[in-house]
Design goal:
The protein is of the alpha+beta class and 292 residues long. The chain is built from 8 helices and 5 strands. About 2% of the residues have low confidence.
């Protein structure tokens, strides 16, 4: 009976691993079609693959493949996607616990990219609002293929997000840089409190939780990932530099204090969005207090 129960509990985990492996392989090979412009090398060559370059094309030579780098990329993407699947499951479907319902994942998969762009707009809008409040002049905003300001237009070049505010220096410029991730972080807190206090239909809950997930991860991702060679804000999309960290330094916030702030706000949001984690921590605190 013990082994049967263990097998039953392990089966959903194996489904997660299998799904992550399939999707990780697809993503890894797909990155071989996306040029990695962060790579500095011979001008005639083009470099492909994320986070490591595993495919190099040349104008006057055969395509080269780095199999070791490809293997590392495969391991990276499988791990990342396993974590993403696990988080999505816990955010969108806490009642399913470890069970993986592929139909249940259809709605969040459909909403993932559109809602990501919505939170991307919140990020860039935060830059604009805080930059204007700091005394700057708002000149430009673009999301994906859409130019938002100074005129609305559809462009041929994809840019995840950009916003420009002129006339800022020193502390004010640092606030402008930090403001994008600060705004999404504040939005994540507001959404988390709303979800905790109000009752919504399943689809609305899923949408708000995905928005909250983007808001929660925006700040830590933007600080940590661009400091890893070859990675960007959202792994292979977005800025190449740790924008919030640069902004905090211009605001004279010491790095250790800033990293502590990031940890505390991310941990707090995790407790807010992940009910099982919140309940487990509450039980641990109660046990400690009871023993005393």
């Amino acid at each position: 009976m013990h082994w049967a129960g263990a097998g039953s509990n392990l089966r959903p985990v194996l489904k997660l691993v299998f799904g992550a492996m399939i999707c990780g392989i697809l993503v890894s090979f797909s990155t071989g079609l996306i040029e990695n412009k962060a790579q500095i090398g011979i001008p005639e060559n083009k470099y492909y693959g994320y986070p490591l370059i595993w495919r190099v094309t040349s104008l006057d030579g055969p395509t080269e493949y780095a199999l070791i780098s490809l293997a590392i990329d495969l391991a990276f993407w499988i791990t990342v996607l396993f974590v993403v699947f696990f988080i999505l499951q816990k955010i969108a479907f806490p009642k399913l616990q470890w069970g993986l319902n592929y139909r249940a994942f259809l709605l969040p998969l459909i909403l993932f990219i559109p809602l990501g762009l919505v939170m991307d707009f919140v990020h860039e809008f935060g830059h604009a609002i805080w930059g204007i409040a700091a005394g700057g002049s708002f000149t430009y905003m673009k999301i994906a293929f859409f130019e938002i300001y100074p005129r609305f237009a559809v462009t041929s070049e994809f840019v995840l997000g950009s916003a420009y505010v002129k006339g800022l220096v020193g502390f004010e410029y640092g606030l402008f840089l930090f403001a994008g991730s600060l705004t999404t972080n504040i939005t994540a807190w507001l959404l988390g409190v709303i979800l905790l206090k109000a009752k919504f239909r399943h689809g609305t809950q899923v949408a708000l939780k995905i928005l909250g997930f983007f808001g929660m991860m925006d700040l830590p991702f933007y600080v940590v990932l661009p400091q890893i060679r070859g990675l960007q804000h959202w792994i292979f999309l977005g800025g190449f530099g740790p924008e919030p960290l640069i902004g905090a330094r211009k605001m004279c916030i010491p790095d250790p204090i800033f990293y502590l702030i990031i940890f505390l706000t991310t941990f707090g949001l995790s407790l807010l969005y992940f009910k099982p984690l919140r309940e487990k921590l509450t039980n641990i605190v109660r046990m400690v207090l009871t023993r005393r």
